[in-house]
Amino acid sequence: PHFLFNTLNTLSRMAMFEGAPKTQDLADRLTRLLRFTLSRIDQLIPLREELVRVEDYLRIQQVRFGERIRYRVEVPDEVLEARIPILTVQPLVENAVVRGLEPLPEGGEVLIRGERDGNDALIDVIDDGTGLDLDAANSYLSRSLPPSGGGHTTGLGIPNVHQRLQHYFGTRYGLSFLPVVKGTQVRIRVPLRSQGSGMDAAAQDAHRRG
Asked: DSSP label at 98?
């Protein structure tokens, strides 16, 4: 990692001196994203912080795919403060891009949407890509490995994300795939409020019982 970070820092400085701001921005975003993916996997962070790194990932993909990859983020402020395990949203967005949009010549859009549901926060990652079998998708959430055909370059498959959420917050929480006309919609449910370790009292009780 030190070699990679030093090389990217050198690349960024070279781009700055050569008057190539787009290349400098790309190198800086990749550096931040790499540092993020190497963070402690048991760390809890505000959703707001994770979405900053998700945007870095999406901007990098836009450099690669151009207009084929589009995205929107529609999350209210109160949901942005919900605390989640690090690398919860990013693998889902990566899955949407790599498996949903990349195979399509025309590409498509990723929408990250959030809302409050009582004492919970709901975060949806929606794409209008190739789609998947809903029953099969929900069935493999309990698996220890992602479905055949590949996973994520982060090494964190969707079942891993689901199991980590349930480990922290209890079986009430986690991921679910929802029916859509086109593409894929996966929903994250987490407690809206958190204290200390990132679990509120109800979530801690559910975690102990789950």
From this structure: I
Q: Which residues pair with 188 in a beta bridge?
A: 123, 175
Q: What is the pLDDT of residues 30-81, one digit of tens each?
A: 888 888 877 777 789 999 999 999 999 999 999 889 999 999 999 999 999 9
Please list, in sequence order, all residues whose beta carbon lies within 8 angstroms of the beta carbon of residue 148, skipping any fewer than 6 positions away: none
Q: Work out the number of other CB atoms within 10 angstroms of the CB of residue 62.
A: 17
pTM exceeds 0.90: no
Backbone angles phi, psi at 120, to 5 degrees: -115, 160
How is residue 53 written in tokens? 């790194």
Alpha-carbon span 98 to 62, nearest angstrom: 12
Tell me the residue type at 202.
Answer: A
DSSP string, 122-180: EEEEEE-SS---HHHHHHGGGSSSPPTT---TTS--HHHHHHHHHHHH-TT-EEEEE--
Under 8 Å between Cβ of 44 and 36 = no
- HEC string for 57-95: HHHHHHHHHHHHEEEEEECCHHHHCCEEECCCHHHHHHH
